[in-house]
Amino acid sequence: MKQYTVAILGATGAVGQEMLKILEERQFPVRKLLLLASEKSAGKELSFRGAQVPVEPAAPEAFQGADFVLGAASSAVARRFAPAIRASGAVFVDNSSAFRLEPEVPLVVPEVNPADARNHKGLIANPNCSTIIAATALGALQKRSPILSVTASTYQAVSGAGAGGPIELLEQTAALIAGKPVEIRVFPQQIAYNVLAQIGKPQYLGYTDEEMKMQNEGRKILHAPQLTVSCTCVRVPVVRSHSIFLGVRFERPVSVEEARRAIAAAPGCRLADDLENGVYPTPLAASNQDTVLVGRIRPDLTDPKGLCLWCCGDQLRKGAATNAVQIMELLA
After folding, report:
1. How confident is the model at residue 42, as a pLDDT?
2. Contact 19, 7 (CB under 8 A)
3. Catalytic annotation present for 242
4. What predicted TM-score, i.e. pTM, was given to this entire model?
5. Sequence-separated (6 or more) residues with CB below 8 Å from residue 40
6. d(CA 84, CA 66)
7. Active-site entry in 129, 231, 233, 311
8. Separation CA 139–CA 151 (nearest Å)
């Protein structure tokens, strides 16, 4: 089996460390591993296959000899190093939002549009975490009938805001239990015992940039340029895994049983849909694994061509690190 030199840009962040874990779990054929991060993180060591691998400072020359680069850094960092990565001959699979909507950059969820990955020009984009989770379910249903529109509400875990998110939730919870005032650093308002109906910055007609990603990225992944999505993104006091409500309107009616069969047979999905017995997806059940759980499939009472469903997925794994490694596997 051919082996590869793999670099992780942003290796010390939450997604970068998850990528390292996924590479080991999925036994990707790594010949040499390059861990790259900022100057302040250089010199740290991370564990991989029982060995300690030093973190090196990211620099244009650091990518020489790499076959693949997994991007787990900010959009600014991705844009800064993309020319050097592509010039080195490596394929850059980037998790940031920097290149997702560029026409010549494939935006890939391997269970939905794997062929797109092979049309790359040295750069492939990893979609937004909520988009990946939703698209994994929607891709299965789209095979039954074209999807015309989606109404979505996301219930996003605090870890989606980075490593500081869970710390702030736990610290605020402890402070409230002790009768002390809370400190607010990561989120715009108190997150403990609360939900925040804003993720991202205002972008279009009262929608945030996080909400518009569901439409703009969904169109590209599903090859559905006319798809319309009305999305509300909410931060909830859950440590890990995002939950998403999807109201889906089809070109022709799709029955509940037809949708259940499609989800049950779809790669990357697991049907969890038995309301009478209390079986439905939860973020806790979806955590620390790579399957998108789908349930609460029912008719949309406002539209005879619509269905409603509920899905949960681990945003650090399938919503970020695992999806990126799967893209790499398509090309390896």
Report:
1. 85
2. no
3. yes
4. 0.95
5. none
6. 11
7. 129
8. 16
What are 273's two structure tokens? 């849909």
What is the pairing mode between strands 292-299 and 269-271?
Answer: parallel
pLDDT in tens, 274-331: 999 999 999 999 999 999 999 999 999 999 999 999 999 999 999 999 999 999 999 9
Closest to 299 measured CA to CA, from 251, 232, 254: 254
What are the percentages of helix, strand and coil residues in the chain, rounded to 5?
Answer: 35, 25, 40
Paired with 249 in beta bridges are 149, 306
Q: Locate tokens 């039954």: which residue? A: 144
Say which amino acid occupies 137.
Answer: A
> Residue 61 has what DSSP assignment?
G
Question: Strand pairing of 91-94 and 123-125?
Answer: parallel
The residue whose two tokens read 């549009």 is 113
Complete DSSP assignment for 230-275 = EEEEEE-S-SS-EEEEEEEEESS---HHHHHHHHHHSTTEEE--BG
Chain CA centroid to CA 137, Å:
13
Told to judge if 223 belongs to the known catalytic residues of this protein, a careful annotator would answer no
Tell me the longest C-alpha to C-alpha distance in the chain: 60
Residue 1 has pLDDT above 90, yes or no: no
Q: Is the CB of residue 198 less than 8 Å from the CB of residue 208? A: yes
Whole-number Å distance between alpha carbons of 250 and 283: 27
Residue of 120, 233, 242, 308 marked active site: 242
Say which residues have a Cβ less than 8 Å from residue 251's Cβ, sequence separation at least 6: 145, 146, 147, 148, 305
Amino acid code (one letter) for 68: F
**279-294 tens-digit pLDDT:** 999 999 999 999 999 9
Q: How far, in Å, CA of 199 to CA of 152, rounded?
A: 14
Cβ atoms of 151 and 125 within 8 Å: the answer is no
